[in-house]
Amino acid sequence: MEKLKNYIYGQWVEGTGNGVPLYNAVTGEQVAVSDTEGLNFEQALDYGRTVGYKNLSSMTFYDRGEMLKKVALYLLERKKKYYDLSYKTGATHVDSWVDIEGGFGTFFTYSGLAKRMLPNTSFWVDGDTQKISANGTFLGTHILTPSEGVSVQINAYNFPVWGMLEKLSTSLLAGVPSIVKPSPFGSYLTNAVFQDMIESGVLPEGAVQLVCGEPGNILDYVQDGDSVLFTGSAHTGRKLKSLPSIAGNAVRFNMEADSLNCSILGLEAKPGTPEFDLFIKEVRNEMTTKAGQKCTAIRRIIVPEHLIGDVQNALSKALDQTKIGNPLSRETKMGSLVGRQQYEEVLRKVNILKSETELVYDGKHELVDANYENGAFMSPKLFLNDKPFEKNISHDVEAFGPVSTLMPYKDAEEAAALAKRGKGSLVGSIVSHDENFIAETSWKMASQHGRIFVLNRDNAKESTGHGSPLPTLMHGGPGRAGGGEEMGGLSGLHFFLQKTAIQGSPDVLKAITKIYQQGAEKKFSDKHPFQKYFEEVEVGDSLETAGRTVTDADIVNFSNVSWDHFYAHTDATSLTGTIFDKTVAHGYFILSAAAGLFVSGKKGPVIANYGLEECSFFKPVYAGDTITVYLTAKEKINRGVKGRNIPSGVVKWMVEVVNQREEVVCVATILTLVAKQSPFIDLNVKNVQRMLNGLTESTPVLWGKMSPQQMIEHLEQAVLVSFGEPEAEKCFTPEEHLEKWQDSLYNHRAMPKEFTAPFLPQDGTLPEPTHRNLEAAKLSFMDNLKKFVVYYKENPQAEHMNYVFGKLNKEMWELMHKKHFTHHFQQFGLI
């Protein structure tokens, strides 16, 4: 029987003991053995703190985000084999989709957040700069850096993939190395996914390690700077949190525990309403998805007392119709528990619930292609607690399976009170169309819940459901739920980051944070900042504009253009008792006039105005005042660009508008999209000619079999096709791939060296030269390049077929030629 290997200190290591046998939850057959005996956990943690921390923390947030995306794409291509293993844990196809592709989706989400919102540095400036001196020479701010340690992540058995990737998404993005310790049950699935993560070659050495089996004494070696993340029972979590190594060394500890989550049916949601039907469907789904083995599953069904019978009957019918059995069968809607051990534990909790509450539904399902003896199958069970304020067992005991309890309430006050008797929950839901009921109930129950999910007819089609934690929202809860916080968008990274206050002069803060601070030295040059590519812009690059004297006509004209006829701009007789001495220029006119002063009219790398982040007006500007603008590069943000967009980054510019007395009248931060410098040659005819001057018959080829003349004639043929002389007869790329290929023209990735043109003979032979010599070929090529430029000036809307990229317009042909020329000029060392 295969023994699962562990991945520690950069190698796959097999345990030296007998290990723990792991069984197929459906058939009872043994699948694998997990074993951690003999592993040196102290060495594993030290390896993560040294090698892993050095490699991860030196990467930028942006690059770590790209790393997550690459790993997720690699795993997505191999997902079929993960599904094959997931079925053995008792999970249906839908259960597996939530676990497997939900995990990949978390990586994709955090990758996107990083590339949109995080800096291209290894630290993160948190919050605004604080002015802590009268003259602004002493400032303060905060930076976040990766906590210098390793994260030990202990996961539950119910989500072997998502449980791992959900924690790794934040720790890896924060720059903290991790040791993954899955539950032994289902760890064969975790192991398979982890193997491929390592095989991808994307993760730096030491970034992740895997311990597949019993945890041994691994937590004895955690120390200050390390962190422990635990998902499981509240009882076990509290024991771990109190360990001397954790409590005594100030180790960061995050717990996400099972909880007695509830769902509340609104008072008005009687049978026949959309909300009643939605409620029954949602409760049934939460009882049967993953066979109820979800930390977010509905355990307490809180229903208006006059609707208890209706809900019990409708829910019983819905559960009757739920097919249980082999997850490989298309009929099956609910699989098994993860194993016999879990089955016995759930049965024990069911018997405890029976001691105080009535079992009103105990499904007698016939299994689909399976049997109760070999598999860990359990039919759904519904209890009724008729006195939920007296009988507390429903609020104390959780059966972690397809088990839930009905309980009545009278009004919103009682509904919220019952919800809170769970003593802390991951999620509570309200199914109602009565906004007043929803508001009153949610406010009162919020203090004991990590998330409140509201469902009704308005959001049902797009709702993700009661039990689905989302990467952009916090997953955790107070009290019994553990008091932890996971995910929550970028907030999830804070657990792994050290927050440090930085104090100093504006120039010092600029040097540390890479963000311009008001009062720091400006860098002036003859080149307009808007004529610089993203890579060329430096924080502190500045421009001082000419002055503009504001006139009465400006104020009147702006009122007419904007339709802003506020009295302070138009009626001098109404200014008594105001802060204005006379009619004042509009604030947005000042901002517009400032833009008119600092923009560069000449086409350059600045693509577009991306937004206005903040704007404040400090002093009024009257007719006769002269304004001058200081434009300064404040911050640069790298940006991931997809599809047919020009590769670019965002530059934040500080705009300071002063009057003739050098008084600041307006400060704003504007954002611009700035193009990145293309690595490909420009189609400027003189530039191309200059490069071709270095090409001779004896110029060696660096790759491929082309001669210099064949290369030039090949490029000339591409130029001729681009304006239809001759028109390409067909495109060789399949239609379903065409959009992807056309999109690739816009990125800055070079053409592959070993690409065989589909229109050339398959045996690799090249056409014989058609010009008498290389010089004649170069002359003809340059003549046709000039024709291309003129053609698209006269026919800007023209489109012509390309053999590989399909029908291209002017912009696409220019991009194609830039890449194509660069590719072949590099082939002969001309660049």
Automatic annotation (TrEMBL):
Known SUPFAM superfamilies for this protein?
ALDH-like, Thioesterase/thiol ester dehydrase-isomerase
Keywords from UniProt, A to Z, are: Hydrolase, Oxidoreductase
MF GO annotations: hydrolase activity; oxidoreductase activity
* Segments forming domain Aldehyde dehydrogenase: 12-499
Q: Which CDD domains match?
A: ALDH_MaoC-N (cd07128)
* Classification via Gene3D superfamilies: Aldehyde Dehydrogenase, Chain A, domain 1, Aldehyde Dehydrogenase, Chain A, domain 2, Hotdog Thioesterase
Task: Give the span(s) annotated as Disordered.
Answer: 460-484
Listed EC numbers: 1.2.1.91, 3.3.2.12
A Pfam family the protein falls into: Aldedh
Q: Is Nucleus among this UniProt entry's keywords? A: no
Every copy of the MaoC-like domain together lies at: 539-639
Protein's name according to its UniProt entry? Oxepin-CoA hydrolase/3-oxo-5,6-dehydrosuberyl-CoA semialdehyde dehydrogenase
